[in-house]
Specification:
about 375 residues, alpha+beta, Helix Hairpins, Heat Shock Protein 90, 3 domains, 11 helices, 7 strands
């Protein structure tokens, strides 16, 4: 079984530092031998000759100086040289180690500047991690730029779309105002058209608020005990006017008294967004089935509707922000593409999961939530809900 630090990814670095430190031991002994030899034997005679030559004195005087200042203090001099040699090797050891920190520093600079990151072989693990961080940052930057571009496009399209119903509302109201004696049948027709355009205008304005809130708000959860079956019954009643436009209905298959812990307002928004999406893309005169199933530690809620099959390429990004199934902005069902993205964020914040399946005209959105509230690592959503 290998030692853990050999599996840490820095085995080469650790082995190289270890070898360098081990080599310091024979190096220190060699230095000691050299220093000791300088003050004994033939090398000692050489030192006496040098003293005589530099000081212009005879051999006996130079020998006495050697004996008095060097030979008699041999132990102290050896200790001094050994201390200096230890400090030298210690400094070299620190230099060997700290140069890897300089490499990391250079790698971080390259990461910030967007340059290629290249470290020594001993730092391959760090190089891979820094390159991975660099790739992740570049990917996130591209995603942010793409999302911002999509947002700007949507705002532009919404601003353009608002002009049309607003012009119609003003036009028909002007006709009603200028012709008070208009026939009742014609007046009823104009009022109906005006109401429809005003409702469309309200939807577009709400989309503006949705896009703004998605970037500006943060959210935190306030978990309470929730009666899921009662919440779904209320929601089905609230959506009756929307569903009745295409003669759709909502069928609940939910056992009574299913209790979960969570933020009631946020989870209601999740279910509303999913149900609104189901209502928008259901075929006329079809049933939207809402089911709930109790499991060991969680509850599974599903929304099933019949309509157009969602293509796989759309299904894979359906929970991404600004993703819309219908790219035509003239569609009455066309929204800003934030409803499902917000639903996912809320579900994840609750420690749950959300997914979608679509096949043979049947689309099913499934939400799994823990029965007991689980605080995730994200205390708030910066992506804002």
């Amino acid at each position: 079984m290998k030692i853990k630090w050999f599996r840490s990814g820095y085995g080469k670095l650790q082995r190289k530092i270890f070898i360098q430190i081990v080599l310091m031991i024979p190096g220190a002994w060699i230095l000691f031998a050299v220093v000791y030899g300088l003050f004994s034997g033939r090398i000692a005679n050489t030192i006496v000759h040098l003293i005589s030559w530099f000081l212009f004195i005879d051999w006996d005087s130079a020998l006495r100086i050697y004996q008095y200042y060097i030979r008699n203090n041999m132990d102290d001099l050896i200790l001094i040289f050994m201390g200096l040699s230890f400090l030298l090797f210690f400094y070299l050891s620190l230099s060997w180690c700290t140069r890897y920190f300089y490499q990391i520093d250079e790698g971080l600079d390259a990461l910030l500047d967007g340059r290629e990151i290249k470290l020594s072989k001993e730092m391959e693990t760090m190089e891979r991690k820094l390159c991975k961080v660099q790739d992740t940052l570049e990917k996130r930057e591209m995603e942010a730029l793409f999302a911002e571009k999509r947002k700007d496009e949507l705002v532009m399209y919404l601003a353009h779309d608002i002009r049309t119903p607003l012009t119609s509302v003003i036009g028909y109201l002007s006709l009603l105002h200028e012709a008070p004696d208009m026939p009742d049948k014609q007046k009823e027709k104009y009022v109906q058209i005006t109401l429809e355009k005003a409702c469309r205008l309200e939807t577009l304005v709400n989309e503006f608020f949705e896009i703004t809130r998605y970037n500006l708000q943060q959210t935190s959860l306030e978990p309470v005990q929730i009666d899921l079956s009662y919440m779904m019954m209320q929601m089905a009643d609230e959506f009756y006017p929307i569903l009745s436009k295409n003669q759709n209905t909502a069928e609940l298959q939910i056992p009574e008294d299913i209790q979960i812990e969570g933020d009631a307002a946020k989870l209601a928004r999740v279910f509303q967004n999913i149900l609104r999406n189901a209502a928008a893309y259901s075929s006329p005169k079809t049933v939207i089935t809402i089911r709930a199933e109790e499991m060991a530690e969680k509850v599974r809620i599903s929304f099933e509707n019949m309509g157009r099959t969602i293509p796989p390429q759309k299904l894979s990004v359906i929970f991404d922000k600004f993703c819309r199934l219908d790219d035509a902005r003239t569609s009455e069902t066309g929204g800003a593409g934030l409803g499902l993205a917000i639903a996912r964020e809320i579900v994840l914040l609750h420690g749950g999961n959300i997914c979608a399946e679509s096949e043979n005209g049947k689309t099913v959105f499934t939400v799994e939530l823990p029965r007991k509230f689980q605080k995730t690592t994200a205390a708030s959503l910066k992506n804002n809900i």
